[in-house]
Amino acid sequence: MTTLHAPVTPDATADDDLSVWPASTARLAHGDLAVGGVPLTEVAERFGTPAYLLDEADVRTRCRTYLDAFPDAEVHYAAKAFLCRAMAHWVADEGLGLDVCSAGELELAVTTGFPAERIVLHGNAKSPHDLAAALRLGVGRIVIDSASEIARLAAAIPPGSRQKVMVRVVPGIAAGGHAKIRTGTDDQKFGLSITDGSAQHAIARIIGQPGLELTGLHCHLGSQITTDKPFLAAVRRLVGLMARVKDQHGITLPELDLGGGHGIAYRPGEPALDITALARKVRAELIESCAAAGLTVPRLLIEPGRAIAGPAGVALYRVLAVKRTGGRTFVAVDGGMSDNPRPALYGVRYAPRLIGRHSPVAPAPVTVVGRHCEAGDVLASDVELPGDIRPGDLLGVPVAGAYHLSMASGYNLVGRPPVVAVADGHARLLVRRESLEDFRSRDVGL
What we know:
The protein is an alpha/beta fold. The chain has twelve helices and 21 strands.
């Protein structure tokens, strides 16, 4: 175990901004940082690089922040952001539910001890295995995402049983940080449209199925949303649809799920969604819209993922090479797009930092690249690092807790990094590094 180190506070400079690092981050001597009381250089030496670090206290604090902001709502952690057994335990321990997208996520959570009734199953194309696992394990709700799912699910339900379901509605609202992560409009694969009537048709079919209990409507507008206006517009549109359901079918739906997509800052100075303000405004809009429609206020559900896991994580890399060519400086590290494809997918920008030594040399613009055989293997473009950056240096990348390992691949058979939890001055391994033996054991044919 690693022992707690007392922080030191050198003179702060403009490039010493730790605002996007975990709340426990403290400056140590010789340019090192500690997270959760554990020096990052010790994490790198003990567990190797690349590696992911998760601040357990930061995760738990963010869970509590959501519960405090939304005291009358169900808060479900979106497992797609990052899931392991420890994460499922932390989330359950703090009183959150879980949103899963596959039988794999579902089985991992339930076999960890997560209560199945507090789990919601999503997915635009759920496999028969996904649905069978959900019914076998007794998930709380299944979100219907297409018309074809209705009959398939109804046929799988044992006689005399009922499964609670919601309908994922496309409200026709464009929101999100990039076109590839906007899911509230009709030109993408998720949900059933209000505009063309497919949502209304699905609702009528579900109501006619004795094995399905429609509990409410669901929507997810996209990811990295940093203003509350799209959520308020979604409340109005979904309440309007709930009113039509009551008029046409005589049913008052008791639940409304607004999904997640709450934006966070990846670099100092970037905007982030104010969760407390969002909660207050959504509650006021929901009460007002329901009063105008003559509806009982439904129970609200939300599904944050990135906003809980993202800021609690740090990625650690070791510099392998520095190359100056074509008027640019490339700093190559021992990871890359196999452990973080997000910059290549939709241009996410990070703020890496030199860890473990103070440099007397002024910062200069560099591009941090990975080790993979791909020109697009870029982790951070045009960022400021000391002009004497060199092989062997350690780099820390904050806001690395979400959509890194969960989206990691086997490209070049480099192997996915380990995940290390830090808390109260101690570090422990949560997920081990993928090994050559893992590659060999999965490859069964000649």
